[in-house]
Amino acid sequence: MGKNWQEWLSVNKRGWRLFVGGVCVFFLALFLHFREVRMEVLELNTTANHYVVAQVDFEFPDYETTILLKEQAKQDIGEIFEIDSKEVRSARSDLEEDLIRNKDWRKTVPMSTFEGMYKAADELETLLLEARLTDPRTIQKIRELGLPDRSYYEYIHENNATLPDEFWETIAQKIQENGAFSSNTVRYVTSAFKKESWPLIQDLALERLLKTKLSNMVPEKMTKVIAGTRIIDQGEIITSKHLTMMQAMKQAISEGRKIWDPLTLAASLILAIIFVTISALYFRISQPTFIRSIRYVSLFVSIVLLTLLFSKCIEYILLKSTSEVIEAVRYPIVAPFATILICILHSPRTALFAATFLSILLSVSLAVDHTHFLILNLVTSIVVIICSKGMRKRKEVFTVAFKTWLSAILVLFAFTLADNHLATSSLFINIIASLVFLMITAILVVGILPALEAIFGVLTDMTLMEYTDSGSALLRRFAMEVPGTYQHSLVLGNLAEVCAQAIGANGLFCRAATLYHDIGKMNNPEFFTENQQNHVNIHQLLTPMESAAVIISHVTDGETIAKKSHLPQAFIDIIREHHGTTLVYYFYRKQVELEGGHLQQVDESIFRYPGPKPRSKESAIIMICDTVEAATRSLEEINTATLTELVNRLVAEKAEDGQFDDCLLTFQELSQVKKTLVKTLLLSHHVRIKYPKKEKKLADDK
Fold first, then answer.
1. Is residue 400 part of a domain?
2. Are 378 and 335 in contact (CB under 8 A)?
3. Is residue 700 part of a domain?
4. Which residues of the chain have pLDDT under 70?
5. Do residues 175 and 267 both lie within one domain?
């Protein structure tokens, strides 16, 4: 999948550049167009340095007035009383005893039965237990709440607790409504319950419930402010009401923007085109190789768009939070996210441009303090670039984030001093917030990095270091099955790394790639001299053509093994290119001799590697070092002269054969590679002092 993606990137490069540019313009225009309105962030309980005037008409929720209205509404609920349940049940028991002992009740209510009297007493007891006594205003409010008021009775509480006759009349009516009782029965039962006074208990729980319900019915008070009205005076202490007014004014301004107006849309589009055009011109002038690479341009645009998305998410979360959160988190750190990714995936130079570009873009687009946001994000991004140099392990991303946080503390402290304060609560909150932002950035970078590497076929130093681990399954197998070739690869890796560093190429990539460049030899290890033991040369049993075929096959075999092992495409390219289309001259010459010296009788293409030729500086360096390292083993005497002659001759042969035609290696760089190669080989083959044997006689004399 990765290979298909990379091959697709190389087709119709101009059209793809236009497509990437169009995507960048589109999303950048959206980012610029749908930006939030920025208002000055005021700190609670501080003194206003200047007055603030309403820019537009707006309404804001007046929480203080709303609270007062709610409290006034609660006052409409008066005291509510209930009859002591013990007294009600006691009166009921007295009535039952009276009905049993005193038979005269039958004369008073001759039409009633004992059962009827008993049921009437039950009904009365239930009504008295459910009864709630309160003032007329409370009953009216209960009706406004839509609650049933059947159990509520008007009652003005005085020192005595005598229940009025109207209460008993109402109770009697309800008993008759609830059952088929005669008026005499109801009258007899109610008269038995009448007392001069009843113990009343205040129902505080019910009062609280009704007050809460009535309070919740009070709508939020919205206070209107006319444009031009001074809402904060200079020297006034900032309150929560002021913060609420500022938020409401911001929302009103945002709602008043004509985001779908053609002129507004055109303005956002033009700004996006300007930003993209300036970026393209910068890269075309300062980094032409970068702008020609579809892969890296696509990677750069992807990271920028991810950063814009990241910043929008942060802005959305902050704006949806309370005003206290917005007040606390004043300077979100966003730009280092893109800076560290680009620094790892491409170069510090490109990362510096991205840091500057994004810091400016985000500072004018997000609802933040423009100046402070720009300074903080630019400084932290530069620190990220400085600290990311030489980063070889993924966990070092967190170390970089921590060092960046230390620089952020200094910047935040400088902001506080500029406001004539030594230390404030907001300073400490912003220090903690900056740490959170940078840790989130580090986590996202570590998580996203492998995906970006896989999608765009880019290898970072961290990944390359992981591939140099000799404990990996493939390298362990390589070292065990073809130890001679493995040792050759280690030596070659060191040579290639030094030579690459000498001309500014990727030395770590050269070292990692050379470890795998000859893995194809694992299929036929005994056919290669470095793996032959007991001086047995198996090629003596083969024809030159057969020997050449086996030798050449290690390239295609290596490619197959690499794909099965899921090695990066860049490593596979090195496997295919490290011999280019070089002629296997030794066996070609033997075949010519077999044909009687007639060159036309031998098909030269059979004895050439399939290629392709090296297409990068690193690939060309590995080819040169591979050729020279193998040839130095045949030198009888190793010194500066012999090594220089050997290197110059072999490189000249490769150049005459056209092996460097497709790479970007210049003559100056080629000369530097040769000098470095000679120097490194000379140091690795330096002559050691020959230690004399210890003579036994001298040892005995001692």
1. yes
2. yes
3. no
4. 1-13, 37-43, 49-50, 107, 110, 157-161, 179, 196, 253-258, 319-329, 534-536, 686-702
5. no
Q: Please state the φ and ψ torsions of residue 595, each to the nearest 5 degrees.
A: -90, 15
Query: Residue 241 in contact with residue 64, Cβ under 8 Å?
Result: yes
CB 468 within 8 A of CB 497: no
Residue 302 has what pLDDT?
94
Q: Does 377 lie in the same domain as 282?
A: yes
List all residues 6 or more positions away from 662 whose beta carbon is below 8 Å from its beta carbon.
Answer: 612, 613, 614, 615
Residue-level pLDDT at 1: 46
How many domains, the chain?
A: 3
Q: Where are the alpha helices (DSSP H) in 222-329?
A: 240-256, 262-286, 288-292, 294-319, 323-328
Q: Which of 427, 453, 479 is the last residue of a domain?
A: 453
| 388 and 488 inside one domain | no
* Distance of alpha carbon 87 from alpha carbon 89, whole angstroms: 6
What's the longest Cα–Cα distance across the chain? 154
Backbone φ, ψ for residue 557 (5° rounding) = -65, -40
User: Do 103 and 172 fall within a single domain?
Assistant: yes
pLDDT of residue 217: 81
Q: Would residue 244 count as lying in a domain?
A: no
User: Do residues 472 and 444 share a domain?
Assistant: no
Q: Which of 36, 37, 30 is nearest to 309 (CA)?
A: 30
Are 441 and 340 within 8 A, CB to CB? yes
Q: Which two tokens stand for residue 645?
A: 């002659």
Determine the Cα–Cα distance for residues 211 and 206; give it in Å rounded to an integer: 8
Beta-bridge partner residues of 627:
none
User: How many other CB atoms are found less than 10 A from the CB of residue 171?
Assistant: 21
**CA gap 273, 264 in Å, rounded:** 14
For 512, the token pair is: 């990692």
Final residue of a structural domain among 423, 453, 483: 453
> How many other C-beta atoms lie within 10 A of the C-beta of residue 237?
12
Helix, strand, or coil (residue 153): strand
Q: How far apart are CA 520 and CA 562, in angstroms?
A: 9
Report yes or no: 678 and 640 within 8 Å, Cβ to Cβ: yes
Give the separation between CA 121 and CA 193, rounded to whole angstroms.
9
Of the candidates 505, 453, 455, the residue with the CA atom closest to the CA atom of residue 345: 453
- In this structure, are residues 258 and 264 in contact, taking their beta carbons and an 8 Å threshold? yes
Q: By C-alpha distance, which of 20, 26, 443, 8 is closest to 265?
A: 26
Q: Give burial (CB, 10 Å; 0-12/13-18/19+) of 60.
A: buried
Q: Are 155 and 279 members of one domain?
A: no
Q: Which helix (H) or strand (E) holds 607?
A: none
261/271 Cα distance (integer angstroms): 16
Select from 407, 397, 490 the least CA-distant residue to 449.
Answer: 397
Q: Which residue has the tokens 């985001």?
A: 259
- HEC readout, 386-417: HHCCCCCCCCHHHHHHHHHHHHHHHHHHHHHH
The closest of 138, 142, 141 to 154, measured between CA atoms, is 138
Domain limits for position 590: 463-684
At 323, give phi and psi (nearest 5°): -65, -30
The CATH number of residue 499's host domain is 1.10.3210
Distance, CA of 212 to CA of 206 (rounded, Å): 10
Calpha distance 595→206 (Å, rounded): 116
701 assigned to some structural domain: no
Q: Give the dihedral sign, CA 73/76/78/80.
A: negative
Neighbours of 606 (CB within 10 A): 15
pTM here?
0.65
Q: Where are the beta strands (DSSP E) in 155-228?
A: 200-202, 222-225
Alpha carbons 620 and 661: distance in angstroms, whole number: 10
483 and 443 both lie in a single domain: no
